[in-house]
Amino acid sequence: MTAQTTPPPPFRDPQLPLAKRIDDLLQRLTLDEKIAFLHQFAPAVDRLGVAAFRTGQEALHGVAWMGPATVFPQAVGLGATWNDDLVRRVGEAVSTETRAMRARDDRVGLNVWSPTVNLLRHPLWGRNEEGYSEDPKLTSAIATAYTRGLRGDHPMYWRTAPVLKHWLAHNNETDRSVTSSSVRPRVLHEYDLRAFRETVEAGAVAGVMPAYNLVNGRPNHVSPYLAEHLRTWTDEHLLVCSDAGAPSNLVDSEHYFDTHEEATAASLRAGVDSFTDHGTESSTMIGRIQGALVQGLLTADDIDEAVRRQLSVRFRLGEFDPGTDPYADLKDFDTPAHRALAQEAAEQAIVLLKNENDLLPLPADTRIAVVGLLADECKLDWYSGTLMHRSTPLEGLYDRFGAERVTFAEGVDRVRLRALSTGAYVSVPEAAEAADEVRGAEGALDPALLAGRTDLAPLTTDADGTELALIDWGEGVLTFRAPDGRYLSVADDGYLRASADQPGGWVVQETFRLEPSDSHGNGHLLKHTGTGRYVTVGADGVKVADSNPEIFDLAVTERGEASVTRAAAEADVVLVVAGNDPHINGRETEDRATLALPAHQERLLRAARAANPNTALVLVSAYPYAVDPADLPAVLWTAHGGQAAGTALARVLAGDVSPAGRLPQTWYAADAALPDLLDYDVIGARQTYLYFEGAPLFPFGHGLSYAEFAYGNLVTHVGDADLTVSCTVTNTGAVTADEVAQLYVRAEDPSVPRPRRELAGHRRVTLAPGASTELTFRLPLSVLEFWDVAHGTWHLEPGAYELLVGASSEDIRLRTTVTVGGVPVAPRPVVTHGLSAADFDEQRGTEIVDRTKVSGDAVTPTGGESGGSGGSGELLFHNCDFGAGVTEVTVEVAGAGSVEFSLVGGPVLATLALGTPTANPYTFTTVRAAVSAAGTHDVHLKLRGPLRLAHVGFSG
User: Fold this and answer.
1) Which of 317, 593, 733, 942 counts the highest number of beta carbons within 10 A?
2) What is the pLDDT of residue 210?
3) Which among 243, 381, 850, 857 is annotated as catalytic?
């Protein structure tokens, strides 16, 4: 007889529909097993042969945190390529390396938390490096390309499962877990949601991650928009993963809920499916979920729905079908193709901002001085992998032009630190036998937990001391570097050592501040920023402590300008390489304070220019700067370009490659041009190229070439549902080069404020000298729509629309006007629908807040709920139709204060005051008053005091 083989359970059968397989596995899991799945680190279920699973693998521009991997340019650099196909190929390489790394290290996850689609609304945002663009259309195009590369093209199985970050309206690090972004409906739909929506609708997104901040007074982790918008954009299950620690923030920092059980239940019901909290320790979150069930705040069905979404992702990743998963055996890692792609991406990300008198490209026999703090650096950021290959600008220029033609001056200040208590100088002990270590080389699930080195001897003091390289990164933040290239750092034991290969870490331990000493006019206290403690000197070495701070004299051996001047004077051309360290002054947890280039780097730039008029500025940075290019013949910008950055830059400077990167965001001329960082109203505050009315330093889409291009033959056609625009682009220059053709639209006579111009399409093409190509853009007419707050829907307004084609948002080469049919915007039907307070047309001094903790909006005067008598604010509603007439107005309000009602141009018709304050901000009451209004008018409301206005109604 032959033994009977037990057939595999249905969830193991790849021939069954996915929904049936998920249902089968779901019903086999116990409730406790399901609950355990809701933590980031889901345990194995051995009785079913189900492996452990974790959500979250950082992969923004290469596999991050898990050791060596191919490092591509920062995300903002990928955005600067304006090349969808290139970015898709980068996504393919990253996901392929993710699979290959997982094959040898099961800590590597396949649920990748990438890309970031937050719009680069404000250039002082600390995480500017993580986004693609200030424009939602460009952001969604690049994000869609990257997610398609990450996903793969198999109809069933996914190479990796990308999660978009960070939902929603998240552009500030300052107090990020407690600040609320006030986002009016038009900005919500036309701007912030749009980048997410178009990327999700493209079909290669597995989920999203809510952001730490609140939107309209409600934390993103309990956002009703997850259900109202996100989950309506696709038929696929989307996995919503919390950001790290955010579930606890709902109680601990935001105080939005009284208990963690309430908070966890609210998040789960709102749509959060996986809780990233307390690291690998899951018992706390499991206890909260179990407590919420016991208290009746959750049901088993709520748990099932969240687990179903997670299982959907796991099935699509091939976890249960190892024999049929086409990506199971991928081994490609650090291949020649990946290295070539990293170089190609770095080349395409370089933006030529200015090139007066054709200073660039540089002839082969040029004597070059390359100077500046980033001239011999290949910087990484928090979301980078560990470099296997490294190319700095200096190295790239050596290789391309020959070391004999290139001179180098870093421009650091050379200093010694003398302890005034003893007169001795700080000294770095010899460390010849110390092992060479690179931070993060071994990989870590949480690199924030990596500790500093303690195997090296602490700093001491002696009669001579050690000359240190001092860099002032701006805002008084300093680093000190020893002669062997290692940075002074503080480990857990508090001692200072020359131990770090670069500044880095979640809390940077390599930065210091010099503070004047009250007792010694020329002396300084040295404060370590990571610990907040001052440096002391003792018999056992130099360390930080809470008492007895040492007073130091900073003895300058040589200013950086001196070495820069020497190098510049002997060269034909000077390249000043300036920019930022991605771990200092602008990064996750820290916004920038200014657009200005740090003073140390300004000093070097001025010194170089004074010594040699042929000075070009090369900015290598994660964000824009406000620099004065007037006396500089050439300026380039590139984001930190990854492992091939230096080679790519040298090839562009030499003319081997013509630059064709384009700015993905506006470069403003000064801080004064910027709105407040927390003002998210891009329409009202006239933000980004869409609405900015000033003169930018460099406009959105700007970028020059070594070739010239002519545009012609503009042809348009308006159909019933779409718009076709075509033109020809011709390379009239002498070299093969890429051009980025950009199509913009503009409503000529809109009834509401519309963008000055808005990107509708783009195309990057390569053309040989004399070659032409025809470009055709086919657009749905919906690209001309706006969000009609009067009726809560998208609206295509009839009339004239200008179509503009050119090389940037301000360099327009072709334009024409088309007429589009449609229905005029109807007046607000206030008699039947009233006015939702948040649906204003204009406002002053107000912010949108939550009507309830579940859904709905209200409006309050800015600062009106912070105590005291409160402030005042104004709302304006255009084109309100009162019909034959109304005799009563009602307001739904909470808190305390009053609402004044008037028609624009007329007196106050009614003051509706709360006689007794309501019990809390969520207890709304209705206040009535008699009025007389008929016909169509603009309505003006004045809010006074700490009140919330949700709705205005009319009757009679």
Assistant:
1) 317
2) 98
3) 243
